[in-house]
Write a structure and sequence with these properties.
The chain is mostly helical. Helix content is about 85%, strand content about 0%.
């Protein structure tokens, strides 16, 4: 007696064939512009690194402002207690 088809396997096979078709289309479009996935991945990685770098720089600048404000508040508190 033949074993019934596994529904999950059928769905996975269908999904695989659809994904392969989409990737083939993407590959064709990239080839039109002499691009490859690796090139795009490198560009995305560069953008991510730049965004992270700006984020770190922003946090550093904000921390510096916080330190300066804390110092000003400390000095103001000292002046207020003298009076």
């Amino acid at each position: 007696m033949a074993e019934p088809d596994n529904l999950v396997l059928s769905l996975l096979r269908d999904l695989r064939s659809r994904m392969e078709a989409r990737f083939d289309k993407v590959d064709a479009k990239l080839a039109e512009h002499d691009l490859k996935f690796e090139t795009i991945e490198k560009k995305i990685e560069g953008v991510k690194q730049a965004a992270f770098g700006e984020s770190v720089l922003g946090r550093y600048a904000a921390a510096e402002v916080e330190e300066r404000l804390a110092e000003i508040e400390r000095r103001l508190q000292a002046l207020e207690t003298r009076s």
